[in-house]
Amino acid sequence: MLAELFSIVAPVYLCIALGYLWARSGRPFHTDFVADLCMTVGAPCLIFSSVVKLDGGIASLMELALAVALAHLLFALLGFAVLRAFDLPTTTFLGPVVFANTGNMGLPICLFAFGEVGLALGVSYFALTSLIHFTVGQWTWTGVVSFRQILRTPLAYAALFAIVALASEAPVPDWLLRTTGTLGALTIPLMQLTLGVSLGQLTLGRLPRSIGVSLLRIGMGLAVGIGLAELLDLEGIARGVLILDCAMPVAVVNYLFAQRYGRGASEVAGTVVISTLVSLATLPLILAWLL
Q: For residue range 27-50, what is the model confidence (pLDDT) as tens digits?
């Protein structure tokens, strides 16, 4: 079991560590370009090529979509209540509590733990989470919900085309699957390296509050994931992917939002770093239980 766990988490941790060391060495890494490449080309291709091969068809995707929507609703309600109870600013910390790192860390963990089926479900979770984050999720930072963002998000179109193909059961040409599969394969290693680089460049602030929010993100996420898996009677790989993704650390994109809108960027950076470090210990334990 230990060897199996190590084979799952080691590639993820080593890629992140490589990105971190790259940043600390002072070598150039064009984070904006890599992130734009991933979100504009790589991730949409990965979403399409994975979702169209999803076992269980459209029913499996709709079941996961319901779980994702309920999870984020619970994250928002519970997170808001806890933050208000401890007199912590929701405009700074609600985003980090709600939105987890289902991309940089979630995708490779789902792939190595559950194979191609796990990757397809993990990609679906990531796509749905991204759409929520860049539309309704912006309200946590600005107080305004912008659905126009969907029209400017390639992820939305990739998800739409994949859903149409899945629902119609129309055969997807091999050339299209191979092209999107090749481009999509860029995404996971690039996202892992970018996470490491980002961790190496972040400046921390007010650690006690960041520690508390980090523990809330992971603890609440795990509890909600287990509860929803029981409520929706999920089994097997779908259950494992839901619980893992719910228990992921704070997403790096929260730091970018905080920096853009002046919402305590250094404290949000603290939640990203600390929750990621905590997850290095919690994820193997969760995987040992799930497997």
A: 999 988 988 898 899 999 999 998
